[in-house]
Amino acid sequence: MTDTPDTIDVLHVDDDPDFTELTATFLERVDDRIEVRAASGAAAGLDALADYDVDCIVSDYDMPATDGIEFLEAVREDHPELPFILYTGKGSEEVASDAISAGVTDYLQKGTGSEQYELLANRIRNAVEAHESHRLLTERTRRLETLIDNLPGMVYRCRNAPAWPMETVEGEVESLTGHAADDLERNEVQWGEDVVHPDDRDPVWETVQDALADDGTFETTYRIVTDDGTIRWVWERGRGVYEGDSLVALEGFITDVTERKEREERLERTTARLEALFENSPDMIDVHTDEGTILDVNKRFCEVFDQPREELLGTKVWDLDLESDPEELRDVWDGMDVGERHEVETTFERADGERFPVKVHLTRLPTDDEEERFIVISRDVSERKARERTLRRYEQMVNTMREAACIYDEEGRFDLVNERMAELYGTTPDALEGRESTLIAAIRDDADGDPYRELLDGDREELRGEIEQPIGEYGRAVLEYRLTPLVSEGSVEGVVGVTRDITDQRTREREFERTRELLERTERIADVGGWELDPDTMEVFWTAQLYELFGVDRDTEVSLETALDAYHEADRRIVADAVETALESGDPFDVEARCRGPTDEARWLRVQGVPTVENGDVVTLRGAVQDVTEQRERERQLQRAQRDASELFNGMNDSAWVIGLDERFRAVNDAAVETLGYSRSELLSMRPHDIDVGLEDGEITALIEAMPEDEMQVFETAHETADGERIPVEINSSLITYQGEPAVLSIARDISDRKQREQQLAEFASVVSHDLRNPLNVAEGRIQLAREECDSEHLEAVERMHERMNSLINDLLTLARSGTSVIEPETVELGRFLDTCWRNVATADATLRSRIDRPISGDRSRLQQLFENLFRNAVEHAGEDVTVTVGELDDGFYVEDDGPGIPPERRSEAFEMGYSTADGGTGFGLNIVERVVEEHGWEISLTEGSEGGARFEIRGVGFER
Fold first, then answer.
1. Where 4-aspartylphosphate occurs along the chain (predicted)?
2. In the list 154, 211, 219, 475, which could disulfide-bond 171, CB 3.0-4.6 Å?
3. How far, in Å, CA of 954 to CA of 940, rounded?
């Protein structure tokens, strides 16, 4: 069989058209499958190759413009595998070598005679067949690799030895075994010794050897142990590989069948349980066909019919069921789906003629053959029928009862109910019977043990009580129940229940009790007592709270005189007059009076009375007494607090006002009126944007909307007075509650003097940075020139003084500019930042140890001043070989050195301007550090370091993460 196609398309490229025509004629004559297309030159050949598909190219070497080798190279750019035969009349070893290097398929010299065309045709066929074979082999290899990659397991080749040493493994090797494929192929892991389960090694070996002795193919299922110790079931199929009669290897496929094996084991266990259930069921069970032929019966079926299994098998079901009709049964069977259940009550007859009632459950079984099968479970209901007859005798009597009555079965289901019980549940007796009683379930849930079972077992004669539960569609009901055993012929056959709905009665009782408790609780919470006066007898009734309020014993009989005596002597007449007026006019009253309670402390009471008038006469007078002492005190304190707040508000030197969330002034103090030059009424009709000339309307609105709930809002702006003067102010605002509504309290401090000082500082800084630094720079330059002319120790002293002056100028500029610029916090990564600050300081042989890498939020420029001054302070005071450590605190960081430190008695002076113990120190560095800390809202303290040096702790710092 050959891989040569039916047609071989050849492109012949040669600059001699007569020769290409002659070649085509001979080639097509030699092999009728060859079809030749001619091209006169390399360019034409490339064009033809772009337009047509060819199986082989035959090309001359010696052609104008482009020779055969160059043409071959051009072809190989897009067609690296296309067969290419160099067919030339000018052959040489050099041309042949170049052609081979360029990737020629074959090389042939032109000859004489027709034999050369036969040779050329043969070379063309060989080249095309080789190319096609290579293509098919590549495709087969790709398909095989794809198949192996998608197999649900592994393929292998191994030697036939007990260890099954693997030569090649492919596929899901590692997912199946946990071992790498290379480990198995290198035999670092032996399949027979390391993978196959120890208990299965000999059986597997014997199975394979028996198969090899037979037809050479084998299948086996066994266990393996994966690399992590997991046991899996695998199925293997393989065959022997022979060379002649010699077995050289085994090849096969292995896949994981653990889930299938486990399903089979579960199925076996389930089958065993079902067989045991079939044989040991207390009910009769038989299996029959759709022709009514009994195929199998259980032990209970044989016992009931008193016949051996062999006699019952093959019997028709209608021979045992007296009420069944074969045609009707077939209609029932035909109408059933697989798994569908059919129930019926009928009568069976034994061989001795005895009949008994049964309840039959019929189910259609799934089958693999055409014969349908049904399983029938039959229960002898003779005893139940007898009970039903007994119960029916009671039915008429029970239905005449006024109470809801019923009989419960052993499971707590309604077996028989009267009309009243059905009405209680909002249904009919037929619908209720057979349902589980929620009452019995609730009794069991609420009790210790099982009192219902005790009734059934005869251990309890009666069970009675009350319970609340859902009843029908009417919501919850309170039921009073009484349960007693139903005894028949000495045995308990159920439970008789009598139930009465006492929901309305208990509801009224609960409402009364709830009202009483609510009244008492209300009186205690509100410190209120109730009273009632009978105008005919002048007898007075007090509630319990009133006895406690007046400190009177509960057993005391209260009259009007006794009641009035409970009030303060000076106020007694007020209450008495109010009562007399109410009795005469029928109008209610509301007065206040004092009394002395149990502690003999004077208490203020609010006394109210409301007459009940019938036919123009007051028939009763009811009222309440409330202790309002604390209320009066709170009102007095509130008035005092309001007065104090008003005095504080108006006594402030700074302008202050309360702004509503609608951006209108609610209150202004005297300082605001005086400073702005508007009257109070004018200001109260204005809004903040009417006086603020530093902010836009939208900015004011945004500030009010962004007010923090528990923090102060601080910003600077400018206010314009009534006469047009502009005043720079610093605003401090916070949220408050004013007259019961949220508002903003703003205090405006005139910072004109501060702004003037800042301007002066700026001018001072300008003078220092320009008018002092420039002459100093000139002087330093002159020193350099002087050194070139003479060498004097005085020049070195002057240079040191210049350096000292430069340090003083730098620190003075830092101090002058501190506080004048706004802090612009950003995230600062301390790792690189500390290194940069350290390099900016002349640290000589000093060492920096950084033990903090968390980013903090701060102004980068000001932080640089802080760290550089602390580093410089350590080097100047602790020596050039000092070690400086920067570390992390819970809420900040520290900078410490291992120098001599600062004595405790001098630490309070360290941050003062001008303090320094180092030669050449300016005394400004630590003061600058303190200002940077304060600008950030942090705190700084000076203490002793872990190695005795100075330790500066900065706390309150905000870490970013």
1. 60
2. 154
3. 5
